[in-house]
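Aim 2 progress update. The chain analyzed this quarter is reproduced below.
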Amino acid sequence: MDEIASKENWHLEYVKCDWQECLLMLEEGKLDIMPDVAYSKEREKHFRFNKEIVLSNWSVVFTDKKSKISSILDLDGKRTALLEHSIQQVQVQEIFKLFGLKPSFIFTKNYEEAFYLVQSGAVDAAVVNKHFGERQKDRYNLKETPILLNPAVIKFALTNTIDTRQIADKIDLHVKELKEDRESLYYKSIQKWLSTKEVFNIPHWLKAAFAIAILFVVILSAAVAFFRYMLNLKTK
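Predicted structure tokens:
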């Protein structure tokens, strides 16, 4: 943001707020721009997004190092921390519903709170984005599970209370330029703050893998429902 602002002669005023509060302020026009927002069609009804993808991301389940949770089925009946009003909330709840799982969701204001709850034993697991999780897991003495959820692309979200099309276009111009230069601040920031190298675009194989996984979930859910139905018929 500073790099773009310096080239556009913008004056930036950073505002600290919890995630839910930030989204509400952006929708009400009390914030102009919010970085690090996962794009969705539902969110596009409330905000303007720039077009250029800034990062790719997905959610990972983290647990205490002694935990035996290793699959999504192990979360049935478990206390699970989930960021309130995040892109994960609706989609994770839908996935759990498809599997017929009934975890006890504990909604948090930020990822730090979610990790603290796992560390303190207040919850069994936390769903956070992979970038935060990989950087902070050692600090909270947690481990990453193989459970991956909710692939997403990260962009800048702008308020719709004023005409922000030109601002979004300028952001796209500079993000694209930064991504094309391997020596730019974009890549230096990724190297400094993120643990993965290829983060600005979701690989095609990963998209295909998630699509297959979702199809598998649907088929499995239908099969479970059918066998439950047949079991009920036989036991009546």
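The first helix runs from residue 2 to 8. The chain has three domains: 2-54+153-198, 56-151, 203-236. These observations will guide the mutagenesis experiments scheduled for the next reporting period.
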